Structure formats: structure tokens, C-alpha cells
Amino acid sequence: MSEAMEVDIADLPGVGPATKAKLESGGISTILDLAAATTNELVDNLNLTEETAHNLVFEAQKLLKDRGYLEKDLVSAQELFTRRAKMLRCTTFSKNLDGLLAGGIETQSVTEFYGEFGSGKTQICHNECVAAQLPVEQGGLGGNALYIDTESTFRPERIAQIAKGHGMEVESVLSNIHVAKIYNSSHLELIVRAMGGLIQQNHIKLVIVDSIISLHRAEFLGRGTLSERQQKLNAIMHRLKRVAEIFNIAVIITNQVQASPDTFFGDPTKAAGGNIIGHASTYRIYLRKAGQERKAIMIDSPMHPYGDTNFVVTEGGITDPAEGGGSKKSANTTSSAASSARSASKSSPKTQKASEESEEATTSS
Ligand code: ADP
Ligand code: MG
Asked: Whose CA is nearest to atom 22 of ligand 1?
């Protein structure tokens, strides 16, 4: 991986010092940042012509594809298999949740946790920042974490408790978590655009965005701005997915729920942000409270069977419910909870669109 990172952006065909400076002014300083950019984004933010922007992204992607860091447009199943073999899974410290995830949170993918306020999304994020630091042999990713905090809910004290609970050295765990506090949607867009350098310099193996939608949801109100908001979220999601693939890292995003008036039975909530977030997340897990426990439901996955399972949040982080306590279900069976949540999530394209458009009018979590 390192050779691709060592290629100077100015070595790409068509990039002179002026273009290089322009790219850097927009936070794009590595080939990887450029390869993960979208043409529109470069045109809008850097005043490049559409042709130049297109060529730049194309050349950066070509270089990465030639060197095997990015999937080629046409690859053999064997190549895909080799690539997937490099994929790592990060434990959640809960056997139940690891079971639901077929081993843990995957690298090369974006995993989305959505649920109501207090359902445990931020707790899982804290937990994973600690777990990711374990060596690969112990179920971690052997690397550091980048926590992009848009709701000001990151708490180092929680990290300390969780690290202590797992017998890890608190100071070192804390110093390996890089926290970016984000206060507005353009700041979030900027950090996501310029993430390549941060990831490399800080040996990041896990990126967290908690939450993906709160700032955009608060800033883009009203019907007229909804499509602009969706476009911006789309660029962020696209970028996160690319980064996960290129660096072989895990990306976790959290999402809020919106009331879903078209659901007549089951759980009347679904993920906010409409199709844009759902389609770009490789895995979507719905969280909800279940008495003292939390229920996690696999809503969408290209390879996991649908199912649900229970876990608990304790001082030491995420773990399994005590034996005999609560209604524990096997992670691999389709239960009614899973299917009702799924039907709320997978409404027909027509109703989905209608409810996306009316989202700003409905309640948020
Ligand atoms: P959200 O889904 O809104 O991000 P959180 O992940 O912040 O929700 O979950 C908050 C919940 O986590 C609290 O209501 C509490 O039940 C639980 N929790 C937080 N800290 C602790 C702790 N130290 N010990 C046990 N449970 C905790
Ligand atoms: Mg939260």
C-alpha cells in the first residue's frame, strides 16, 4: 500500500504545480484523496472545469487500479477473493453481536448503526475505538481510530472505563484515538474529503462518523434544500466507501431514525436520510431498547443471513446479556422483530420517495 501513497500528486499526467496547489487548498493532498473525490465536488469547490476534474479523478483511480489498491472495473472472482482475504473483522466484545456480524465489523465496508436516541449507537462507537486497537490475533484491527464527532457525545472517560474493563493500558488506548469535533456540515464534508492523509499519518484502521446525518439534517430544512442535502450526503457516503476499500479499514457510521407514517404494524421507525445512506452502507443494523438489554437487527447485508440478537451496555462496554436474563435469540434466525423492521426499511420505491420528501416534516429522534 505504501508505494501508492508515496506517489506525489504532481506526478500524475496533467497535474502541474498550479493544479497541485489548487487541490491542496481544497484539502486534497494525496492520490488517495483525489481518487476518492467526485468530479462534481472538484468543480464546485475548486473551480476546475468539468473536463479537468474528470481527468484528474480518472488518472488517480487508474494509478490505484494499476497498482491493485482499487478494484478494477472488471475483475476476476479470483482477484476479488484475494482482496476479500485481506479483509479483517473487529470484535464487538459481544459474542452475540459478533455472531450477527459473522465475526465482527468488517474492513473494506461501511457499517451503519441506526436507532432512536439512547439505543446504544454512541456506546458501540466508543467500544469499537477500544476493540480496534487490539492486535489482529485478538480480534482487533491492530490500529488506531479516528472519531468524527458531530453531536459532541464523545467521552474520553467512557473510553477509559472500557479499556480498563478489558485490561488494556488506558493512557495508550486514549492517545490512539483521534477525535475530530465537527460543528457544521461543510466542516464534515471537508474532513471526509481530506481523510486520506489523516489515516496514513496516524495509522488509522477504524473511522467513525457519529452521526452521519445530524448536521445536514439541521442545516438543510425545507423541501427546496432536500435534494442539495441528499447530494452532499451522497458525496460523503461515496467517499467513506472508497476510503474503506483503499485503506482496508473499517468505517462505522451512525444514523438517526425518522417516523415512518406508512408502517401500520411492527416498528414505526426507519433510518433517516433515505436511499442515499442505505444504498451506500454495506451493512445496516437497527438498534433498539429491549428492557435492560439492547436488540440489534441486521436489516441489510449482501452476505449475512437476516437475524437479530441482544447485547447489553455496561460500564466496561458492550457485552452479552447474563445467561438466562432477557429473551436471547440466535443471531441466525429470522425473527418477527427482524422482518417487521425490514418491512419498515424496505418500503416500495414510491413510498420511500414520498417519505424522503416529507422527511423534514416528520419527527426526528
Ligand atoms: P445513542 O444511540 O443515542 O447514541 P448511546 O449510545 O449514547 O445512545 O446510549 C446511551 C445509553 O447507554 C444510556 O442510556 C445508558 O443506558 C447506556 N450507558 C451509557 N454509559 C453507560 C455506563 N457507563 N454504564 C452502563 N450503561 C451506560
Ligand atoms: Mg449518540
From this structure: 315
